[in-house]
Amino acid sequence: MTTYVDATAKKKRMAGIIPIHGAEGFAGMRKAGALTAEALDLLVPMVEPGVPTATLDRFVYEFARDNGAIPATLNYRGYRYSTCTSINHVVCHGMPSDRPLREGDIVNIDVTLIVDGWHGDSSRMYPVGAISRKAERLIEITYESLRLGIQEARAGNTTGDIGAAIQRYAECERASVVRDFVGHGLGRLFHDEPNILHFGNPGTGVEIKPGMIFTIEPMINLGRPQVKILNDGWTAVTRDRTLSAQCEHSIGITEDGVEVFTASPRGLFDPLAARTG
Ligand code: MF3
Ligand code: CO
Ligand code: CO
User: Fold this and answer.
1) Is 233 near ligand 1, meaning CB less than 6 Å away?
2) Ligand 1 centre from 13 Cα, in Å?
């Protein structure tokens, strides 16, 4: 009886316990991350004025299905979509809809694909046609803040070093860091220990060790950091209605550095570089 229950038990998040993954976990994450990154790459030419985010969501659903993957957000805590599509002042968890994208919008598309039980979680910013200089600047700041966060993600540092690097840079650029949502451990679980704050002080938090796998996913606002959740129970928006952007990678800590599981196979992660290059 007990052995039967153990063999089929669902993995559960253990408070305060940070999983250390081995070669199998890294191989699983490499595959899930690559498929997620491929989906995000394929979305680049699809994001255009007039296209509803529901169309992008359906594409990701079908892409996952055709590649033996499962979108992790589908039926997750009652969420009913394969992606989050967060437009302009939407901070995160925007729900795909039939409303067409408009020229000048900026949209974050967040995709998590489960491959062989492993979760690849990544999001990028997509400009819709020509965008304003301030929207471009926000995307640059957000992309760079993720890059600086990843740079601090190495054995011997602490999780607070990541948040501190992100906050220092974003605030120097006169933008603000959202506090209400954080990066997270992941692997066979979608959301696991540790929490990765995108703000805070160097040397705080927990020590980063080889084998840890987590996301870094800063949300950066042009105005104030406060958010509110709309009545749909999901959509988070900036209280002051200023623009918000987010970039997310899933990474693994190695002995001597970091592996970015969701790196773009085509070099399209940076939306502004992707447009001109
Ligand atoms: N992909 C999001 C993250 O980065 C989680 C979305 S949960 C959902 O953690 F239910 F809103 F889809
Ligand atoms: Co995430
Ligand atoms: Co995500």
Assistant:
1) no
2) 16
